[in-house]
Design goal:
Elements: H1 9-14, H2 18-22, E1 27-30, H3 33-38, E2 41-46, H4 56-72, E3 76-81, H5 86-97, E4 102-107, H6 116-123, E5 126-131, H7 133-140, E6 151-153, H8 161-177, E7 183-188, H9 192-202, E8 209-214, H10 222-229, E9 241-244, H11 257-270, H12 279-291, E10 300-305
Parallel strand pairs: 2-10, 3-4, 3-6, 4-5, 7-8, 7-10, 8-9
Antiparallel strand pairs: 1-2
Helix pairs in contact: 4-8, 5-6, 8-9
Length: 328
């Protein structure tokens, strides 16, 4: 695996350790009228600022996979995702920066017009291969082999044991920064980020209250999903983690006027842009909890911003200028 182009942010980030990556962005106090009135401190870890493209948990989850691909001497990278996949978007940019060819297996038929996400991937050199939903699932599960010879296959969303490496380092860093009584809030999809963070926190002395906001409408599957997240952890952690699923906006990737209005208002109040799939819905739920008095005066709510702002471009009504220019 060749080095990244000189001065490229990805090359700088990959030159150090996962712990150094986690410490590149600290906690920032953000003022919001609702929190100020309740006497609750809102703090962000703005990992959307790690890199203008491969930001947030995408970079943490890819960390271990890229190290393993380098050790194996992979001649290329491939992975799986949908039309608006933050994961494929980040992987395509990394492949370009590292001078490695990439292949993206996309769920669904090839549309007449590619999404802005896939246009970026293609422009950065990623070969897009569209699979039917049945073939896609079979390929993700390993029942059908689609990986080009010599390519390192990154699981869907950057999951698997290597995907936990960077997230575990993030958890260790958070453990050194969180204070007694803090509540750590983060959005979750596949659960890799949360699982890695919990493993990192488990190695330390801090045991904060943790709220995980699933981007999925889990319903009857909520219990099984929660058990999967906590698998392998000490039983005592079960009482520290609260899981909330997506019930208000129609399920994964769904956006309605109420959510859009909230996101625009939150950005106006704080200057922090959110994505509509993960952080937007999480902050909406957090603000509702503040209104209900869930947290006591003087308590800190620490929010992990997992990036994904490129997805704003696919939603009418959201200002995309907050990310314009990063994809030139």
């Amino acid at each position: 695996m060749q080095s990244a182009v000189a001065g490229d942010g990805i090359g700088i980030l990959l030159s150090g350790s996962a712990a150094q990556l986690a410490g590149r962005v600290g906690l920032t106090r953000v003022e919001h009228p609702l929190f100020e009135k309740a006497g609750v401190a809102l703090c962000f870890k703005r990992d959307d600022q790690l890199h203008p493209i491969a930001s947030g948990n995408k970079l943490y989850k890819l960390w271990g996979h890229l190290q393993l691909a380098r050790q194996q001497g992979a001649r290329g990278l491939c992975s799986f995702g949908g039309y608006y996949s933050n994961h494929l978007h980040a992987l395509a940019w990394m492949g370009r920066a590292l001078h490695l060819p990439t292949v993206g297996f996309v769920r669904g038929h090839e549309p007449r017009r590619l999404s802005a996400t896939l246009q970026d991937c293609q422009r950065w050199g990623m070969e897009l291969r569209f699979l039917s939903r049945l073939d896609y699932r079979a390929a993700c599960d390993g029942r059908v082999s689609v990986v080009p010879q010599g390519y390192y296959p990154v699981p869907e969303g950057g999951g698997g044991a290597p995907g936990l490496v960077g997230c575990r380092a993030l958890g260790q860093w958070l453990g050194s920064e969180l204070q007694q009584g803090d509540c750590l809030c983060l959005a979750t999809g596949t659960g890799t980020t949360l699982r890695g963070i919990l493993q990192g926190l488990e190695a330390g002395l801090t045991r904060p209250e943790i709220m995980a906001f699933a981007a999925l409408k889990l319903g009857s599957e909520s219990a099984g999903y929660g058990q999967q997240l906590l698998q392998g952890l000490a039983p005592a952690w079960a009482g520290s983690v609260t899981l909330r699923d997506e019930q208000r906006f129609g399920g994964f990737g769904r956006v309605n006027p109420e959510l859009l209005e909230f996101m625009v208002d939150f950005e106006t109040q704080t200057g922090v842009a959110l994505d509509p799939v993960y952080t937007g819905k999480m902050l909406h739920a957090i603000c509702q909890l503040v209104e209900r008095g869930h947290w006591s005066r003087g308590q800190r709510v620490v929010v992990l911003h997992s990036g994904g702002l490129q997805g704003r471009r696919g939603v009418a009504g959201l200002d995309s200028t907050v990310v314009a220019g990063a994809w030139a």
